[in-house]
């Protein structure tokens, strides 16, 4: 069974500083990996996704993530955070087999300080 | 851009009552899903639906839950007799069929409060 681990429950970053949110997955084959963002009281917005090919993927809002098979990781990065980036971030994995469900990590809450 | 919509945005119900949560998936999508998120916890899979039948369901999706696609546009989740622990945000998602159809599109969610 697939599993996704987000080791950091809560991260605080100064506005303008760089950000890296960690995600590790467990899956026999190459998974399909996603990062979603959830603002308070809101739904899930897809930031970026990885299926195959270039291991560095670009997403919306200036985010990027790098797939590293050797480390079973898919960490999310942003070079300079903005106050509006404060939210909950979820890493998720899936597959291409029919209607395979998504398996989510427990999330990382990002706080931005001025 | 097409979106998944869900109604109501917030539902309050008493324990033991039946609730129906409604979703309108994106029109050309053929895979449908329900997930839930208990406050402060991660998003959990409930059920997937394809070709008018359940494809997969989790342990959470017991006999109190059912799903239906009553017409060509709606996808519903029914909880027959709600319990306090059913209080959560419920997300509907849909996915299209075909090459490159990897991404699930999520609705804004329905917050269910059971009192």
Overview of the structural elements:
- The complex is a heterodimer of chains A (114) and B (115).
- With 114 residues, chain A is mainly beta.
- Chain A is built from no helices and twelve strands.
- The radius of gyration of chain A is 14 Å and the shape is globular.
- The termini of chain A are far apart.
- In chain B, the strands form two sheets. In chain B, strands 2, 4, 5, 6, 9, 10 and 11 form a seven-stranded mixed sheet that branches.
- Chain B has a single domain (5-96), classed as Immunoglobulin-like (Sandwich).
- In chain B, a hairpin with an 8-residue loop joins β9 and β10 (105-106).
- With 115 residues, chain B is an all-beta fold.
- Chain B starts with a strand and ends with a strand.
- Classes of the chains: A mainly beta (114), B mainly beta (115).
- Chain A binds chain B through residues 32, 34, 36, 42-46, 49, 51, 90, 92, 94, 96, 98-99, 101-107, and chain B through 31, 33, 35, 41-45, 48-50, 55-56, 58, 91, 93, 95, 102-109.
Q: Topology, please?
A:
The complex is a heterodimer of chains A (114) and B (115).
Chain A: E1 3-5, E2 10-14, E3 19-21, E4 24-26, E5 32-38, E6 45-50, E7 56-58, E8 64-68, E9 73-78, E10 87-94, E11 103-104, E12 108-113
Parallel strand pairs in A: 2-12
Antiparallel strand pairs in A: 1-4, 3-9, 5-6, 5-10, 7-8, 8-9, 10-11, 10-12
Chain B: E1 5-7, E2 10-13, E3 19-24, E4 29-37, E5 43-50, E6 53-57, E7 65-68, E8 75-79, E9 88-96, E10 105-106, E11 110-114
Encode the helix/strand succession of chain B as letters. Answer: EEEEEEEEEEE
User: How many strand segments of chain B?
Assistant: 11
Please name the CATH topology of chain A: Immunoglobulin-like
CATH superfamily of chain A: Immunoglobulins
Spans where pLDDT lies below 50 across 5 or more residues of chain B: none
What is the annotated CATH architecture of chain B?
Answer: Sandwich
CATH superfamily of chain B: Immunoglobulins
């Amino acid at each position: 069974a697939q599993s996704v681990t987000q080791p950091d429950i809560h991260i605080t970053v100064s506005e303008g500083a760089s950000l890296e949110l960690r995600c590790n997955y467990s899956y026999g084959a190459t998974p399909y990996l996603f990062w979603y963002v959830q603002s308070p009281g809101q739904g899930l917005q897809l930031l970026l996704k990885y299926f195959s090919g270039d291991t560095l993927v670009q997403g919306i809002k200036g985010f990027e993530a790098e797939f590293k098979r050797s480390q079973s990781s898919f960490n999310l990065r942003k070079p300079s955070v903005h106050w509006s980036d404060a939210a909950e971030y979820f890493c998720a994995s899936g597959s291409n087999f029919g209607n395979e469900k998504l398996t989510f990590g427990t999330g990382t809450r990002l706080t931005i300080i001025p | 851009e097409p979106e998944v919509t869900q109604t109501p945005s917030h539902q309050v119900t008493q324990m033991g009552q039946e609730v129906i949560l409604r979703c309108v998936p994106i029109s050309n999508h053929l895979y449908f899903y329900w997930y839930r998120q208990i406050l402060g916890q991660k998003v959990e899979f409930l059920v997937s639906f394809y070709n008018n039948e359940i494809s997969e369901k989790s342990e959470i999706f017991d006999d109190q839950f059912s799903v239906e696609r009553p017409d060509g546009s709606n996808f519903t989740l029914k909880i027959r007799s709600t319990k306090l622990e059913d209080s959560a945000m419920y997300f509907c998602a849909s996915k299209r069929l075909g090459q490159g159809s990897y991404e699930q599109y999520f609705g804004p969610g329905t917050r269910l409060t059971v009192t």
